[in-house]
Write a structure and sequence with these properties.
single chain; alpha+beta; 2 domains; 8-stranded mixed β-sheet; 4-stranded antiparallel β-sheet; 13 helices; 16 strands; globular
Length: about 375
């Protein structure tokens, strides 16, 4: 019996899907292997996907590994997030010549199709949509780049060692917000993808490639595999009110313990799919005839980030780490109505000191609860 509306796409069909998207005017962005990592890049064909590659992750560690099969989505989050295409790391705002006045930068707004977006990253795109695309101070460049975005989600069946999306409430199944949702299947019946259609545009694009109706058993098996992945997460956040925890831990001695290990390098903010802070810089040529203003990503770990006349507000590493974590898990709710953490685990894998957000939050919770009484029998 077929499952209503759910289709099956084979591996060749995935290649045709990429071609169909390109033919419809989309620039297809997806994962590929480069420089010892799985990164995001423009794809001219599905052959560039990381078939047969997985990753090994741990605090401060990320390594490619060969898989025993040809899975194209058999890996967890890499060093890059989709944020970089909608909220570029560096962009020119305007230029000026001494005799020519100021000219705003002409920004490219490509029609993007993101292929292989995990549940955590789909949640991050929604968060950025609230932060940069809503409110009284929206980013026109972000809105233009996000307009017409086509999203093909990839449900996770093999979470990574530093993933904790289940406890963050963002995965392993992708929430609504995608145009097409894929669940990869490799077994004795072949290599294929169970496809859920999320939007009318998704249905239109999918109709351009050959698919078959998915059986109810196929769909049920795919759903079960994704659900089972929630129990195999490498990490988890404490099951407590995290907003209250970081608020009540403001004076905790644990911040100094973290600071003793933290390099304040800002890696965690650079790989985070939701960190959005920027700064600007003005540059001129040697003659002073031409000037430009550029915007680029900034980090709350930078000493100058909180600089005001007379010095920086947060000079210690402890205060800067506390600012980052408290905003991410606490005051982000007050500003934007949700957590700023989606559980992707990038900040853990790409921290050179191996600092683990989930462990640090658990330590704060333990310290706040106080020492536990020993209720065991004394040795006689």
């Amino acid at each position: 019996m077929a499952a209503t509306g759910v289709r099956t796409l084979d591996l060749a069909g995935l290649g045709e899907l990429v071609e169909a998207l390109a033919g419809a005017g989309y620039r297809v962005i997806g994962p590929t292997v480069r420089d010892g990592a799985i990164v995001l890049d423009e794809l001219d064909s599905a052959e560039r996907l990381p078939a047969g590659w997985g990753v090994e992750t741990a605090p401060g560690r990320y390594r490619l590994r060969r898989r025993d099969d040809g899975a194209v989505f058999g890996h967890s989050a890499g060093p890059q997030s989709w944020k970089r295409f909608l909220h570029p790391p560096r962009r020119k705002l305007w230029s000026a010549d001494r005799d020519g006045g100021v000219e705003p930068a002409r920004e490219e707004s490509p029609k993007y199709a993101f292929l292989g977006v995990r549940g955590c990253d789909l949640a991050a795109l929604a968060v950025l949509g609230t932060v940069l695309g809503g409110g009284a101070h929206s980013d026109d460049g972000f809105i233009a780049r996000r307009r017409g975005l086509f999203v093909i989600a990839a449900n996770c069946t093999e979470p990574g060692e530093v993933c904790f999306c289940a406890s963050a409430g963002t995965g392993p199944a992708a929430a609504p917000g995608y145009d097409l949702g894929l669940t990869e299947r490799i077994d004795e019946h072949g290599h294929r993808f169970v496809v859920d259609v999320g939007t009318a545009e998704g249905a239109r694009i999918l109709a351009l490639v050959p698919t078959t109706a998915a059986s109810a058993a196929e769909v049920a098996s795919a759903r079960e595999d994704v659900a089972a992945a929630a129990g195999r997460m490498g990490r988890e956040l404490p099951a407590t009110d995290l907003r209250a925890l970081v608020r009540d831990s403001r004076e905790s001695p644990h911040w100094d313990d973290v600071a003793a290990r933290c390099f304040t390098c800002g890696n965690c903010t650079m790989v985070c799919p939701t960190c959005f802070c920027t700064t600007t810089e003005d540059v001129t040529d040697l003659t002073g005839e031409h000037a430009e203003r550029w915007q680029h990503w900034a980090s709350c770990f930078e000493l100058d980030f909180s600089y005001v006349h007379g010095g920086s507000v947060r000079e210690s590493g402890a205060s800067r780490y506390r600012q980052w974590l408290s905003h991410k898990l606490g005051t982000w709710h007050d500003q934007f109505g949700s957590s700023g953490c989606v559980g992707c685990g990038r900040c853990i894998a790409w921290c050179p000191a191996g600092i683990d957000l989930t462990e640090e939050v658990a330590s704060l919770a333990d310290l706040l609860d106080g020492p536990k009484e020993d209720t065991g029998a004394a040795n006689g």
